[in-house]
Each structure stands twice: as structure tokens, then as C-alpha cells.
Design brief:
Elements: E1 4-8, E2 12-18, E3 35-39, H1 41-51, E4 55-63, H2 66-73, E5 79-86, E6 92-98, E7 104-109, H3 118-127, E8 132-136, E9 152-156, E10 170-174, H4 175-182, H5 189-197, E11 203-207, E12 213-217, E13 220-224, H6 237-250, H7 255-269
Parallel strand pairs: 1-4, 1-8, 2-6, 4-5, 8-9, 9-10, 10-11
Antiparallel strand pairs: 2-3, 6-7, 11-12, 12-13
């Protein structure tokens, strides 16, 4: 029997434009067309996990507006018992520029009224219990207070409150985020993963784009290479990776095997444009 997964985070609209080069002071960048899709890391991760057959649920808020409706329509297969559309609140947005090399540059325009509150998160996880809970750690710290303890608590992104790291069973970040958490100029993902483990986290996965990923846990540190592919757009690739990783864990795969499978999914993701396309299995 597959375990349930709950993804806790933000739901936003992704506004993506491909540009030949980024804007600079005194010089505009001309690109297009503008593409609007459902976004937010928790949204992308839940969608990716559901596409792979996982019982995935979303805990997030959006505005009761055009963009909120777009998000709902885009989440076929995802349990939305913990997702709310709030009247009078605008949906947040991610402004994404994609350059010819496939790199994405993201600016988040947050909606303060749509930020999660602890009482909503706790109520959502009581209504629909989940064995695996994935939290975006850039949420306001109070939103993650007093969570029901799942079998596996997974954290993603740089935490606003570093003390939350001690509560995690698994921490998944890219190498740049890992360096920021460590406060050091670390570029080797294995060194970064081991450094994070030294903070007391039982298991750490550090992703490194074309260089694959590194898993560090009680069994040691293992590098997982990524297949060589042509990069079209990196938007959402990390979310596809984490959605696939947790889908594997929910299906009973060992962590190392789940990381290997997720690395393949992440590599497929960068061959397509947009975070939603990145969720293809």
C-alpha cells in the first residue's frame, strides 16, 4: 500500500518569458510570449508525485481569483482537501526569465494574505493524515509550528528558522542552498551534504544540476550521476526531482534507489519548457 504524501508550501502563478539575454541597468530585455501556469514549489512537487502514481496532497493557499482557479484546474490527480482559495486575497506570482542556455531566473511576488498559518496546516494534516510530509522551509516559521509528527518529515529550501533543521528526517536542497545554510563557499555537493549531516540531520540530498545528486546518510555518502541531456529550461527541475523522490519513498523504495530514480526524472525535466512540463515522468 502506498503511503500518503502532503506537500506544504505556496501556490502561485508562474509568469514565464524566454529572453535572449537578461535586462541590465538602462537596457530592456525583449522576449516572449508570456506564459502563465500553475506554480509554487509545493504545487510542482505534488503534481510531479501524483503523475508518478503517488497519493499526493497539497496544503497551500491562493486567492479566489483568476489565477487561483487556474491552479485548481491544473492539479488533476492531487488531493486538494488542504488547499484553500481565499476571497479578497490576490494570488502570488513567480516572475521567471529563461535565457537561451535554459537557466531560469525567478523573482517571487508573494501575497501576504495567502501565507500559510499554523492552524491551517495543523487542521489540514489532521483531516488528511500523511505518512510523509514535505515542507518548504522558506515559509513563515510560525506556519510550521506544532506539526503532527509523520513517519518521515522532509524539508526543502533555506530555512527562515535554522532550528527547524533538527526536526527533519530528510533535507533536500541544491548545492547553492546548501552553501547558504552552511554559511560557507561550498561548491562540492558531497562536501555540502556531509556538512549538513554534521548539523544533526539524519539524511541529506544535495542536487547539483548536470552533476546529479549526492546522498549522505548513516550508510555513507554516495554520488548519483545525472544522464547527459540537452537543457531547454531548468525551471521546476528540482521540484520534479523531489516529487519523484518522495513518490519512490511512498512506494516503499529505499532512499538510495529513490534518489537514483529521481535523478533520472530531474534530467528529463530540463528537456522541456516550464515547471509544469518538468513534472513529466
Amino acid at each position: 500500500m502506498r503511503e500518503r504524501i502532503a506537500f506544504v508550501g505556496r501556490a502561485v502563478v508562474d509568469l514565464t518569458v524566454r529572453v535572449p539575454e537578461r535586462a541590465a541597468p538602462g537596457r530592456a530585455a525583449y522576449g516572449g510570449p508570456l506564459v502563465a501556469t500553475a506554480g509554487g514549489k509545493a504545487v510542482n512537487q505534488a503534481y510531479a508525485a501524483a503523475r508518478l502514481g503517488a497519493d499526493a496532497g497539497l496544503v497551500a493557499n491562493a486567492g479566489a481569483d483568476h489565477w487561483g482557479d487556474l491552479i485548481v484546474r491544473s492539479l488533476d490527480g492531487v488531493n486538494l482537501d488542504g488547499f484553500r482559495l481565499l476571497p479578497g486575497v490576490p494570488t502570488g506570482a513567480a516572475i521567471i526569465e529563461v535565457t537561451p542556455d535554459g537557466e531560469s531566473y525567478v523573482t517571487l511576488a508573494l501575497s501576504e494574505g495567502a501565507e500559510l498559518r499554523a492552524e491551517h496546516v495543523r487542521a489540514a494534516l489532521r483531516r488528511r493524515t500523511a505518512e510523509i510530509v514535505v515542507c518548504q522551509l522558506d515559509l513563515p516559521p510560525e506556519a510550521l509550528g506544532g506539526l503532527p509528527r509523520p513517519r518521515l518529515l522532509v524539508g526543502n529550501l533555506i530555512p527562515r528558522d535554522p532550528s527547524v533543521l533538527s526536526t527533519l528526517d530528510l533535507f533536500v536542497v541544491n548545492v547553492f542552498e546548501a552553501a547558504a545554510v552552511l554559511g560557507a563557499a561550498v561548491t562540492d555537493p558531497a562536501e555540502a551534504a556531509e556538512g549538513l549531516r554534521d548539523l544533526g540531520i539524519p539524511a541529506v540530498v544535495v542536487t547539483a544540476g548536470a552533476d546529479g545528486a549526492v546522498l549522505s546518510d548513516r550508510d555513507g555518502t554516495k554520488r548519483v550521476p545525472a544522464p547527459a541531456v540537452e537543457v531547454v529550461d531548468t525551471t521546476g527541475a528540482g521540484d520534479a526531482f523531489l516529487g519523484a523522490l518522495t513518490a519512490g519513498l511512498a512506494a516503499g523504495r529505499p532512499l538510495a534507489a529513490a534518489v537514483e530514480a529521481a535523478t533520472v526524472i530531474g534530467s528529463r525535466a530540463v528537456q522541456h519548457a516550464g515547471a509544469r512540463a518538468a513534472a513529466r515522468g
